[in-house]
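User: My advisor asked me to double-check a structure prediction for C1q domain-containing protein before group meeting. I don't want to rely on an old file, so could you generate it fresh from this sequence?
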Amino acid sequence: MACILLLFVILAVINGNDEVETLRKEVQHLTSIVLSLQNQVVDLQSQQKRETRAISPEYGFMAMLSNHVGGLHLNQPIVFDKVITNIGDAYNNQNGMFTCIVPGTYLFTFSIMADTTEYVEAALALNGNHVINAISDHTGTTVWDMGSSSAILSLREGDVVSVVIQWPDRVDNTLHANGYTSFSGYLLRQAD
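Assistant: Sure, here is a fresh prediction for C1q domain-containing protein from the sequence you gave:
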């Protein structure tokens, strides 16, 4: 009788080992499925980011002077009142300022042309701080001189970009219109 009991115990242990092995294999299989699903989620998140960037909001503007403008003060924004394009309505042609709505990387460019016998320096300003300058010098020459500059800036929501007079103050700083003095910018890439 003891042998039969021992045989039952041995069979139960062997049978139990088979169940343990089956469960171990099932756990391994489920683990590999979970890892595969995690990788798929990461891939889908990356794809979603790429697609979101592809359909990110568009912001861009181009404006110029409709008339010659002069008598400007130092650091006074030039008001480019003739809007050619204003996608996203972030440029204000009443005060000459672009206000960032969507954080990201932007390209800005501006050009200036001083009127006859005049000299003008202007600067692209970010939140009132000069970033890059341009000069138009029409003194002592009959050749029209035009200055321009470009800058790529990382902007946060609420940042303000404008073109301001750098020199001279109020006297002999007339800017020529007719498409020669302009300001433009556009969103290159939305911030993550």
